[in-house]
Amino acid sequence: MVEDSKTDVFLIREAIASAQVNADLHFVSDGDAATQFFDSADADANAPCPSLVLLDLNLPKASGHDVLRHLRSSKKCGKAAVVIVSSSDVLSDREAVAGLGVNGYFRKPSDYYEFMKLGNLVKGLLGAN
To answer: What 8-state DSSP symbol labels residue 104?
Structure first.
């Protein structure tokens, strides 16, 4: 999960737990930390790669678009499933990430119960991989 909002991290954890997804979660709070995570995995044959990346678009230090491009260029992690989790509902954002092969786009709702639907999306994607 690449997310800089502590509130959204809390809600995402809640959504994943409510969907009873059994997964090891790793969180980073900015774009640079995310790219470093993927670079470390590429450099270490024993380092794990994520099965699924939940990625915010509006991040400090490097945008979600930049992180996604970097991830897709990773030799080891480039095939990971990606769900954009963003407050942006701008068509150009959706089109830009679609061209980089995302598996889903979840617009962050203001309603708690709507946010919890993210858990089932994650569960479905992890079950498909």
So the answer is: E
Q: Tell me which H or E stretch contains 83.
A: strand 81-86
30 belongs to a structural domain: yes
Determine the Cα–Cα distance for residues 60 and 118; give it in Å rounded to an integer.
23
Q: What is the CATH number for 110?
A: 3.40.50.2300
**Residue 120 domain-assigned?**
yes
Under a CB-based contact definition with an 8 Å cutoff, are residues 98 and 91 in contact? no
Strand partners, 2: 28, 55
| Across 103-109, average pLDDT | 93
**Residue pLDDT, tens place only, 38-69:** 999 999 989 889 999 999 999 999 999 999 99
Q: Per-residue confidence at 23, pLDDT binned at 50, 70, 90?
A: confident
Cβ neighbours, 10 Å, residue 107: 13
Q: Let me know if residue 1 belongs to a domain.
A: no
Which domain, by its residues, includes 37?
6-128
